[in-house]
C-alpha cells in the first residue's frame, strides 16, 4: 500500500472554471476526509465520508463545492466557478473505522492556483 | 468550541540544540484527542503522535518527547539534539471524542541550521 494518493499535485485554472480533484485512500480505510490549507494556516476541515456516505460538511463548503465517494473507495472534490479565494492546498486523509485509536493518514495534497 | 493555539510562528535553531514547540488547546469536552503532525516542504502531513485526554503520561520516541499537562491545557513537543532534517512546519491538532473533525493550530515553522 502506498498511502493516500491525490491527483493532480498541482492545478492552475482560470477564474470561473470548474476543477475536480481525486483522492485514493488507503484501501482498508473506510473513513475519508477533505481539508483545505491556505498559506500560513493550519488545515481546515471541509467534509467527511464513512464508506460512501457523506456524514459531515463544514460551513466552509459553499454551494460551489461538492464531494463524492461513489463506491466507498476513491473520492472526488469538485469546485465550480472557481474564485481566487479558492487558491489553497486541498488535503485528503483517511483512517480505519473503530474509533479514534489511529492517526489520520494524509496525502500530499493538491495545490490549486486560481488566476 | 475547540481551539488550538501555537503561539510560536517561526523558530530557528542551530543543529544539536534542543527545541520545544508549544501547543495550548481549548475544549469543553472531557474526552478528546491531541495530535502532532509534521509537514515537510513536500506538503504531506506526517503523523507523529496521538494522545487521549485520559492519558497524561509523557512520551518519548527517540529524539522526540511530548509533555501533556491538562492543568494548563498544553501539549508541548520537544526535539532533542535537533537535526537539519527536522526542518518543517509542525502542527498541533485536537478532536473531541466522537467527532471526526480535526482542529489544527496555525503551525510552527522550525528551521534547523547546520
What would you note in describing this structure?
The complex is a heterodimer of chains A (115) and B (114). Helices cover 0% and strands 49% of the residues of chain A. Chain A contains no helices and eleven strands. In chain A, strand 7 and strand 8 form a beta hairpin. Chain A starts with a strand and ends with a strand. The model of chain A has no long low-confidence stretch (mean pLDDT 92). With 114 residues, chain B is mainly beta. Helices cover 0% and strands 54% of the residues of chain B. Chain B contains no helices and twelve strands. In chain B, the strands form three sheets. In chain B, strands 2, 5, 6, 10, 11 and 12 form a six-stranded mixed beta sheet that branches. Chain B has a four-stranded antiparallel beta sheet with strand order 3-9-8-7, with no helix packed on it. Chain B has a two-stranded antiparallel ribbon with strand order 1-4. The model of chain B has no long low-confidence stretch (mean pLDDT 93).
Strand content of chain B: over 45%
Structural class of chain A: mainly beta
The beta-strand count of chain B equals: 12
Mean pLDDT of chain A: 92
Fraction of residues in β-strands of chain A: over 45%
In the predicted model, the low-confidence regions of chain B spanning at least 5 consecutive residues are none
Assign the structural class of chain B, choosing from mainly alpha, mainly beta, alpha/beta, alpha+beta, or little secondary structure.
mainly beta
Distance between the termini of chain B: 41 Å
Please state the overall shape of chain B, judged from the principal axes of the Cα atoms.
Answer: globular
Largest sheet of chain A: 7 strands, mixed
Helical fraction of chain A: under 10%
Q: What's the SSE pattern of chain A?
A: EEEEEEEEEEE
Amino- and carboxy-terminal Cα gap of chain A: 36 Å
Tell me, rounded to a whole number, the average pLDDT of chain B.
93
Question: Secondary-structure element sequence of chain B?
Answer: EEEEEEEEEEEE
Amino acid at each position: 500500500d502506498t498511502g493516500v494518493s491525490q491527483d493532480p499535485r498541482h492545478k492552475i485554472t482560470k477564474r470561473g472554471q470548474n476543477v475536480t480533484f481525486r483522492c485514493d485512500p488507503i484501501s482498508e480505510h473506510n473513513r475519508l476526509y477533505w481539508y483545505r490549507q491556505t498559506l500560513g494556516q493550519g488545515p481546515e476541515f471541509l467534509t467527511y465520508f464513512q464508506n460512501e456516505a457523506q456524514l459531515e460538511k463544514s460551513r466552509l463548503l459553499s454551494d460551489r463545492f461538492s464531494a463524492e465517494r461513489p463506491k466507498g473507495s476513491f473520492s472526488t472534490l469538485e469546485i465550480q466557478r472557481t474564485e481566487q479565494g479558492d487558491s489553497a492546498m486541498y488535503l485528503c486523509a483517511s483512517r480505519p473505522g473503530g474509533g479514534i485509536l489511529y492517526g489520520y493518514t494524509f496525502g500530499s495534497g493538491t495545490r490549486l492556483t486560481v488566476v | 468550541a475547540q481551539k488550538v493555539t501555537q503561539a510560536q510562528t517561526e523558530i530557528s535553531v542551530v543543529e544539536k540544540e534542543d527545541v520545544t514547540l508549544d501547543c495550548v488547546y481549548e475544549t469543553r469536552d472531557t474526552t478528546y484527542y491531541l495530535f502532532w503532525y509534521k509537514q515537510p516542504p513536500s506538503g504531506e502531513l506526517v503523523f507523529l503522535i496521538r494522545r487521549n485526554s485520559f492519558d497524561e503520561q509523557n512520551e518519548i520516541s527517540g529524539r522526540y518527547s511530548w509533555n501533556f499537562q491538562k492543568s494548563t491545557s498544553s501539549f508541548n513537543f520537544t526535539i532533542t539534539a535537533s537535526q537539519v532534517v527536522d526542518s518543517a512546519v509542525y502542527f498541533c491538532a485536537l478532536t473531541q471524542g466522537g467527532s471526526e473533525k480535526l482542529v489544527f493550530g496555525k503551525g510552527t515553522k522550525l528551521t534547523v541550521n547546520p
